[in-house]
């Protein structure tokens, strides 16, 4: 299994490296966009023989800082059913600003105005090469790897405003934790059955596998690339399973002091403490 990590050392160097157990082996200086999983970048990571660092001694950043984050709503039947909405006939797409990206262990900060902050654990797909009008059959050839992400959602902003401000409610600063690594596609044992799980302060909230997606990862890529050029480093959030806090009775929103853990099979877990804006 090859996993790439984007990290900073104690002396301020920002690097990309290959994960080996509890260590990371430096491959190259990290560019502004982090690790873009193109073929040449993966070769550099696989061949890395630089300095070795204990992961516990470095600061782990989001592995990639994408130009575009394209997210899919209502893509697990469990989530469709809990919202009492109709099963979508085509993918439901919305955007998240890249400024919402934060590290895999950094705080989620709730803005003063937001009263309904929710979690959404998801499988993240990172594009490796330009994709335009890509077929389902060729879609995986344009994927550089997978990661874990939390599509944190401010439901007040998203749903209570008259025009339903999805982009605003989904794009508050720190509302897209990503990481801790990107795992190469060839290391994924079963690309059609990737497990995802969300735990909030020790309580399991979500658990499913990607074979329960309404629109598969290749179908999502085919749909998005009709008229939209997907670029290397772009991040696709593939949808969240049932069990979100907003649909629970009573609702279970994130509050300061919570810790949200999102696990993706073959990737590992992100784990973010929740804080109030100061």
TrEMBL record:
Residues in Fumarylacetoacetase-like C-terminal domain copies: 68-274
Nucleus as UniProt keyword: no
InterPro entries named among the record's database cross-references: Fumarylacetoacetase-like_C (IPR011234), Fumarylacetoacetase_C_sf (IPR036663)
Keywords (A to Z) from UniProt: Metal-binding
Domain of life per record: Bacteria
One matching Pfam family: FAA_hydrolase
Transmembrane segments: none
Protein name from the UniProt record: Fumarylacetoacetase-like C-terminal domain-containing protein
Gene source species: Agrococcus citreus
């Amino acid at each position: 299994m090859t996993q790439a990590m984007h990290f900073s050392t104690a002396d301020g160097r920002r690097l990309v490296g290959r994960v080996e157990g509890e260590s990371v082996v430096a491959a190259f200086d990290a560019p502004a966009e982090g690790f873009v999983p193109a073929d040449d970048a993966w070769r550099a990571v696989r061949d890395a023989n630089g300095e070795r660092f204990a992961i516990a001694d470095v600061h782990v950043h989001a592995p990639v800082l994408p130009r575009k984050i394209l997210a899919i709503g209502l893509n697990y039947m469990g989530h469709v059913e809990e919202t009492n909405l109709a099963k979508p006939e085509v993918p439901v797409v919305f955007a998240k600003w890249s400024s919402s990206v934060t590290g895999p262990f950094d705080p989620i900060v709730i803005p003063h105005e937001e009263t309904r902050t929710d979690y959404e654990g998801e499988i993240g797909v990172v594009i490796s090469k330009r994709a335009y009008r890509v077929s389902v059959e060729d879609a995986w050839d344009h994927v550089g790897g997978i990661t874990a992400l939390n599509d944190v959602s401010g439901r007040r902003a998203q749903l209570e405003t008259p025009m339903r401000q999805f982009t605003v409610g989904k794009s508050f600063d720190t509302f897209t934790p990503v990481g801790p690594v990107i795992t190469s596609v060839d290391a994924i044992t079963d690309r059609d059955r990737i497990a995802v799980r969300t735990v909030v302060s020790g309580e399991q909230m979500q658990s499913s596998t990607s074979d329960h997606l309404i629109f598969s990862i290749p179908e999502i890529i085919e749909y998005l690339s009709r008229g939209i050029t997907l670029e290397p480093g772009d991040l696709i959030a593939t949808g969240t399973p049932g069990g979100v806090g907003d649909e629970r009775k009573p609702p279970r929103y994130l509050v300061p002091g919570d810790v949200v853990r999102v696990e993706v099979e073959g990737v590992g877990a992100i784990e973010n403490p929740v804080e109030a804006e100061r």
